[in-house]
């Protein structure tokens, strides 16, 4: 007997990535040899090293997850759905380090290698994870000629009203990061965007092998093996970043995570984090990252904003703020286009002129290979339920290492 | 051919030597010159020419320097009456400018135009939308001064003042202004300025003042400016200029632009004004889409040429185009001139200048080239409308081809009559050659047939045969030239075979009947060359005329370089 | 690990605000000459949303920034609060003009740290005033507001800043090695400087970091040339390990895969290097072999 396992309802290699939120899967018998009767009982388990990722299973959209699952599968080839989720606290370290096995009796009848791909604390990445991330990022930049230029061009003075100073700040940046992450994954599927936990010391980030070490002038130095040494934006080589704090400590004056999460239970209270800690984190440095028109020139910008998004995700999880129809989940009182729940967001909507910038770089939002949300031209409302807690189809395919699904 | 700058050493018009500008071109000298021109009523008209980007005064100077210089010219214009020839530069700054100093100076200069009018309002509203979140204080007291206090003026203030000057003429943009008006508890001072402007404009619902015909904008200035060029002034294209396209493939000017009309835009990837190059290339993608919609995509090429070929290597070109949705293939290319921009700069009179090989300032410019690679239209300075560009290309497609031989005026006919007339000599020569008497007996037969026995002196007039043969060769040559122009050599082949048949019929007695074939093919081929198949005959394009502002601002009209 | 409890779906009672003070209280404390510098700095850190909330707030914070008699840390904190507020571009609209004017004033402040920070902010906005000041300072050291290496670094924010001529002069005759390095980095955007970078890359007497800048510059300006140079460097046994590692990285990241895979000699050479003595070279060689599947 043989079975086919579809992860995220697909056999494509790009779909074999799961996170804490359950991924819809299917199993079907492709070769019924050895079966007696019209159905077969297939048992699903997973195998992985202790340091690698781990997954759990459940039959439907509710109920507890378990380390194994038995399914009754018709032998005529009709598929049966089930769900796989990464086991919270057990993210993968390498691509495909978890094997899902299907057994008919004791016989192995099918298997697929998956990765529990999770956004992690950048300070805690393994050397392999770190190197793959910077290599993909440098490749995306491609010494100024790569697709990164679109991401740089999305975050300028001209486009700033689309993304700052109003409630859409958080959803816009969530879509922005996801777009970038998916482009990185098109280069290396094992890459997830790490976050800079700016309220904690992160000495492993500010090293020559990672985000670089700044000299007294603020020029960032990289090791000779770090491809970020070829980083170029606006036609100019290099990164200017001068920390105003010792990088083996956290920048002072920022709200801690606990303080940020305690800003309030309503979105309009929580969004004040745009000033502190978000703005304060930006201005803890001299250099590109400290000014709106140049912030996206520094790759650290994306790690900073990954943490901003993580804080929002954690606030959402703690208070159950995923449903856009619940007033506390979002402040829909803005009159600015692009900041209301029903508005599509520039640049992915391709709308230019008038209150929108004159051009819309980068086209639509990159398609995910393990999730279909939020779609090529997301609305603000589409960016709240990133785990699919309210509507499973809203799942965006990413998760943070310390924000569970349930 | 425009001369390259005196400090330029490289053939591409860039790559200059470093070092401070020559004394004669220092900023102080420039400012003094501007002041002198502004103070001389007889020479004020020369100020507009100083705003051309390619003016030698800006050669090898940095962008910030050119901003100071241009701003000073705009402020000089503001002190007198703003002429029609200078108006386009002011509107350009409002339409696509992002520098606070220049936008503020342009807004101020506009108030010295001879009369406010509603056509000016959209420019001001657009400029406000561009600069309102980048407002900064500017100082107009002296040349090159920067404001260190917030008390003076700013681009927003100047734009609001100019909108107030427009008064009721700005009612068409009142709704936009109301939407932009700052709200919130803090911005009392700003809101007061906006309120004053809105009060000056007047209430919504009131009638707009009647447009005074004497004060309408000069012809051609509107959302788009283009000019049809006088064909007598059109330069022969630089056929041998070598390019490299977005895929790294080599291609020449001739291979790119001969045979089909082309829409050409200029840009460079390091342009930091999103309202110029980025928008231009984005719009080129829309032009491609419109051409596709109209079924013209196979008949018209598009090209985007970089001002910065040294830096904009093929991979950069491709990335820039793809990021803006440009279709890239053999008929739609992004290009860099392999030997530098100098030849193209001279040929197109590009509105650009450089410091080294880096652009310091350029205008928005889009060209329509005809099938012979010559400039048929230029859309300059103000942002062009994609539909208008496509309309112009469609007109170029419909324009009559140039006649193969000088036209024979048989009647006071339109273009169709002239074209028909031009086929007559060729056809007649073919017929005459075929029927030319081969012997005295034939002469006798013809003469008796025609009853012209009195023409004995024509017997054995072999020179007439030679003349007819020469006429046939001339016809052949003319059809060949015409074929090159239209890109179709079918007619030439037909006429060629006909000529061979006629020659054979004269030289080989056994093939005498071939003369009829020769006549038919020669005549038919000549007609085919003239009229073609499926070609619509249209009227000649609109009158060839130069706009007033072009005449004033052309290089010929400018003062001698400093 | 024990999974966390499922979060409550009902809105919780309004959580206690993170800050202990109101905005008004923070502003009062920030301005107070009697309070300690630490307390004032902490109060100012709470202000980004209030800075552009009223005329009075804005004037107060701008005054703190521009007043040379205030403690430096208080002035720097005021600057940081203004910068953080400026990220909300639309909300900051009424404040931008006065903010820019104050920055220009402080650009000539006696304190070098303040000058450096505000000139950095202005240069990132491509401010013509700041550009002129920095260029004047490079041409005439008596007018310099910043050390030449910092001025060059800030001028490199704007590729149109007209700094190439003076940068070339500094490369030829540098006041100090760091200035030369920054001049080279600035010139990496200058297409006409490709020959200079080829020379620097192959000059073994050049500092390693300058040669690395040259490699990056050449990769951008003349990628085929850099690939050729990188290959030659890899084969040059007398070359420094850092430069060989950089060359291997360039070949790994940007090399033409088909050409590299077809280059047996290169593949063999890198294979040998992967077992060599230098850790940097070994790591880079292994990444190269990883990519090209050896």
Written description of the protein model:
The complex is a heterotrimer of chains A (406), B (562) and C (294). By secondary structure, chain A is an alpha+beta fold. Chain A has two domains: 2-116, Immunoglobulin-like (Sandwich), CATH 2.60.40; 122-394, Orthogonal Bundle (di-copper center containing domain from catechol oxidase), CATH 1.10.1280.10. Chain A has helices spanning 127-141, 148-154, 169-187, 257-261, 267-270, 275-282, 300-319, and strands at 2-7, 17-18, 23-31, 39-48, 55-58, 69-74, 80-86, 98-104, 107-116, 213-214, 220-221, 232-233, 236-237, 241-243, 285-287. In chain A, helix 1 packs across helix 3 (169-187) and helix 6 packs antiparallel against helix 7 (300-319). Chain B contains 19 helices and ten strands. The relative contact order of chain B is 0.11. Chain B folds into three domains: 23-215, Leucine-rich Repeat Variant; 226-399, Glutaredoxin; 415-531, no CATH class. The longest helix of chain B is centred in the C-terminal third of the chain and has 25 residues, at 462-486. Chain C has a domain at 21-106. Chain C is 65% helix and 0% strand. Chain C is built from 18 helices and no strands. The interface between A and C is large, with 75 and 79 residues.
Q: Provide the helix percentage of chain B.
A: 40-55%
Q: Largest sheet of chain C, described in full?
A: none
Individual helix count of chain C = 18
N-to-C series of helices and strands of chain C? HHHHHHHHHHHHHHHHHH
Mean pLDDT of chain B: 78
Biggest beta-sheet profile of chain B: 8 strands, mixed
The H-and-E topology of chain B, N to C, reads as: HHHHHHHHEEEHEHEHEHEEEEHHHHHHH
Provide the domain count of chain B.
3
How big a fraction of the residues of chain C is strand?
under 5%
């Amino acid at each position: 007997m043989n079975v086919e396992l579809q992860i995220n309802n697909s056999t494509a290699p790009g779909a074999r990535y799961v996170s804490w939120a359950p991924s819809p899967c299917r199993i079907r018998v492709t070769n019924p040899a050895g079966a007696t009767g019209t159905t077969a009982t297939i048992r699903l388990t997973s195998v992985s090293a202790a340091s690698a990722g781990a997954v759990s299973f459940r039959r439907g959209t509710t109920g507890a997850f378990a380390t194994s699952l038995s399914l009754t599968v018709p032998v005529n080839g009709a598929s049966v759905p089930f769900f796989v989720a990464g086991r919270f606290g057990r993210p993968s370290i390498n691509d495909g380090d978890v094997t899902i096995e299907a057994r008919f009796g004791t016989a192995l009848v099918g298997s697929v290698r998956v990765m529990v791909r999770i956004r992690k604390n950048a300070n805690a990445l393994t050397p392999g994870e770190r190197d793959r991330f910077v290599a993909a990022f440098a490749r995306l930049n491609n010494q100024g000629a790569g697709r990164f230029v679109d991401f740089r061009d999305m975050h300028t003075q001209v486009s700033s009203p689309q993304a700052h100073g109003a409630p859409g700040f958080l959803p816009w940046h969530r879509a922005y990061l996801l777009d970038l992450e998916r482009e990185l994954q098109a280069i290396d599927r094992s890459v997830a965007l790490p976050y800079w936990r700016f309220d904690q010391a992160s000495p492993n980030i500010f090293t020559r092998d990672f985000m670089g070490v700044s000299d007294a002038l603020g020029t960032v130095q990289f090791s000779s093996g770090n491809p970020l040494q070829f980083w170029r934006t606006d036609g100019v080589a290099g990164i200017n970043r001068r920390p105003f704090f010792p990088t083996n400590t956290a920048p002072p004056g920022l709200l801690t995570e606990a303080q940020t999460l305690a800003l309030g239970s309503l979105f309009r209270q929580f969004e004040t984090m745009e000033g502190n800690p978000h703005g304060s984190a930006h201005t803890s440095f001299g250099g590109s990252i400290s000014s709106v028109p140049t912030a996206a020139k520094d790759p650290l910008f994306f790690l900073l904003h990954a943490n901003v998004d993580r804080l929002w995700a954690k606030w959402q999880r703690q208070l159950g703020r995923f449903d856009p129809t619940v007033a506390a989940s979002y402040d829909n009182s803005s009159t600015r286009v692009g900041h209301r729940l029903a508005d599509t967001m520039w640049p992915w909507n391709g709308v230019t002129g008038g209150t929108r910038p004159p051009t819309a770089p980068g086209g639509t939002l990159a398609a995910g290979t393990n999730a279909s949300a939020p779609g090529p031209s997301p609305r603000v409302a589409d960016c709240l339920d990133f785990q699919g807690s309210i509507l499973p189809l809203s799942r965006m395919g990413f998760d943070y290492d310390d924000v569970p699904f349930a | 051919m425009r001369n390259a700058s005196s400090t330029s050493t490289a053939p591409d018009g860039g790559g200059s030597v470093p070092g401070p500008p020559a004394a004669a071109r220092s900023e102080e000298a420039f400012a003094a010159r501007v002041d002198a021109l502004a103070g001389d009523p007889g020479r004020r008209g020369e100020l507009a020419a100083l705003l051309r980007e390619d003016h030698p005064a800006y050669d090898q100077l940095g962008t910030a320097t050119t901003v100071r210089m241009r701003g000073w010219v705009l402020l000089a214009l503001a002190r007198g009456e703003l002429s029609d020839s200078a108006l386009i530069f002011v509107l350009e700054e409002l339409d696509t400018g992002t520098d606070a100093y220049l936008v503020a100076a342009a807004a101020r200069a506009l108030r010295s135009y001879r009369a406010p009018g509603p056509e000016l309002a959209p420019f001001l509203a657009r400029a406000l939308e561009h600069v309102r979140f980048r407002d900064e204080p500017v100082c107009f007291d002296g040349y090159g001064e920067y404001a260190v206090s917030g008390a003076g003026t700013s681009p927003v203030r100047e734009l609001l003042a100019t909108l107030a000057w427009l008064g009721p003429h700005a009612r068409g943009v009142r709704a936009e202004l109301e939407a932009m008006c700052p709200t919130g508890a803090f911005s009392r001072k700003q809101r007061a300025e906006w309120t004053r402007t809105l009060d000056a404009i007047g209430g919504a619902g009131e009638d707009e003042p009647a447009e005074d015909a004497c004060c309408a904008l000069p012809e051609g200035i509107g959302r788009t400016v283009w000019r049809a060029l006088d064909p007598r002034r059109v330069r022969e294209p630089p056929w041998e200029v070598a390019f490299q396209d977005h895929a790294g493939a080599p291609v020449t000017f001739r291979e790119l632009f001969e045979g089909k009309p082309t829409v050409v835009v200029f840009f460079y990837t390091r342009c930091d004004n999103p309202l110029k190059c980025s928008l231009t290339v984005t719009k080129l993608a829309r032009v491609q889409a419109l051409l596709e919609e109209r079924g013209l995509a196979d008949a018209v090429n598009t090209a985007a040429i970089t001002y910065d070929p040294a830096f904009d290597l093929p991979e950069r070109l491709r990335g820039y185009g793809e990021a803006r949705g440009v279709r890239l293939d053999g008929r739609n290319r992004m290009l860099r001139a392999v030997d530098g921009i100098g030849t193209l700069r001279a040929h197109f009179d590009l509105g650009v200048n450089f410091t080294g090989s880096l652009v310091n300032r350029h205008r928005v410019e889009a060209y329509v080239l005809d099938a012979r690679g010559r400039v048929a239209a230029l859309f300059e300075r103000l942002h062009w409308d994609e539909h208008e560009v496509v309309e112009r290309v469609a007109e170029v497609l419909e324009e009559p081809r140039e006649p193969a031989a000088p036209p024979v005026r048989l009647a006071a006919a339109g273009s169709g009559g002239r074209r028909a007339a031009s086929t007559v000599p060729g056809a007649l020569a073919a017929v005459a050659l075929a029927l030319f008497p081969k012997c005295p007996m034939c002469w006798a037969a013809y003469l008796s047939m025609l009853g012209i026995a009195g023409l004995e002196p024509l017997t054995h007039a072999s020179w007439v045969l030679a003349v007819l043969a020469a006429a046939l060769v001339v016809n052949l040559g003319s059809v060949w030239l015409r074929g090159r122009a239209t890109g179709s050599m079918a007619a030439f082949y037909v006429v060629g075979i006909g000529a061979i048949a006629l020659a054979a019929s004269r030289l080989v007695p056994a093939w005498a009947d071939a003369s009829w074939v020769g006549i038919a093919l020669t005549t038919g081929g000549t007609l085919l060359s003239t009229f073609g198949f499926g070609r619509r005959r249209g009227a000649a394009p609109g009158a060839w005329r130069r706009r007033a502002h072009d005449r004033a601002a052309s290089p010929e009209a400018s003062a001698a370089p400093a | 690990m024990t999974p966390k409890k499922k979060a409550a779906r009902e809105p919780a009672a309004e959580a206690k605000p993170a800050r202990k003070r109101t905005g008004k209280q923070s502003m009062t404390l920030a301005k107070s000459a009697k309070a300690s510098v630490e307390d004032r700095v902490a109060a100012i850190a709470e202000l980004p949303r209030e800075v552009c909330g009223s005329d009075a707030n804005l004037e107060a914070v701008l005054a703190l920034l521009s007043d040379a008699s205030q403690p430096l840390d208080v002035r720097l904190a005021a600057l940081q609060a203004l910068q953080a507020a400026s990220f909300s571009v639309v909300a900051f609209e009424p404040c931008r003009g006065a903010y820019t004017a104050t920055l220009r004033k402080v650009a000539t402040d006696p304190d070098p740290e303040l000058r450096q920070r505000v000139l950095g902010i202005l240069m990132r906005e491509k401010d013509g005033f700041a550009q002129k000041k920095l260029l004047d300072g490079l041409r005439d050291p008596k007018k310099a507001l910043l050390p030449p290496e910092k001025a060059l670094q800030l001028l490199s924010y704007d590729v149109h800043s007209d700094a190439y001529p003076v940068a070339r002069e500094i490369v030829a005759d540098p006041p100090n090695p760091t200035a030369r390095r920054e001049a080279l980095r600035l010139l990496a955007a200058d297409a006409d400087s490709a020959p200079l970078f080829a020379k620097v890359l192959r000059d073994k007497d050049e500092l390693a970091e300058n040669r690395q800048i040259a490699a990056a510059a050449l990769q951008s300006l003349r990628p085929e040339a850099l690939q050729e140079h990188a290959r030659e460097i890899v084969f040059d046994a007398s070359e420094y390990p850092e430069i060989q590692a950089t060359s291997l990285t360039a070949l790994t990241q940007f090399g033409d895969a088909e050409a590299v895979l077809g280059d047996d000699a290169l593949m063999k050479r890198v294979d040998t290097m992967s077992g060599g003595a230098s850790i940097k070279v070994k790591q880079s060689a292994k990444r190269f072999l990883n990519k090209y599947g050896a």
